[in-house]
Amino acid sequence: xxxxxxxISLSGNTERMAVIIKDRLAACGCNVEMERLDTIxxxxxxxxDLVLIGSYTWNKEELPYEAMExxxxxxxxxxxxxxxxxxxxxDLFYTNTYTAxxxxxxxxxxxxxxxxxxxxxxxxxxTTYDQTKKCEDFADQVLRWSNKRKKWRLFSRSRVLKIPxxxxxxxx
Length: 172
Description:
Structural class: alpha/beta
Shape: globular
Radius of gyration: 17 Å
Helix content: 40-55%
Number of helices: 4
């Protein structure tokens, strides 16, 4: 499976989350590419089987300026059918936390992507065992979800095209 992880990080917390997720997906056999959001074009997302987008929240409840160009391109990009998930870190000092992640999630859905409804939101540093475990668990959950989406899409396509299918019981 070809996976892309795009992120924006100011203090390094979201980048550490992205690295943990990348390592976990690579250990599961995925071909993972990772880049900052301000260096890619949104149109390239359609080339991947799974996309994970990470961000921090800027100025209490805004998208970081580094992600604004990506955000604007996302509205015009062809990402229909792309499987995506969002993650990020924030400071719980503010009243409206993690809003950048929710903004990106809503934009991905509005652009036609299949979005994993659960997001990974971690308070600031990802150095504790529990926070690292949350990142690894999120990677596992998203991978399972994306594989189920693929199977369901193939099954639905065969039903629409009225392709007969034969069920074999196979033990792996």
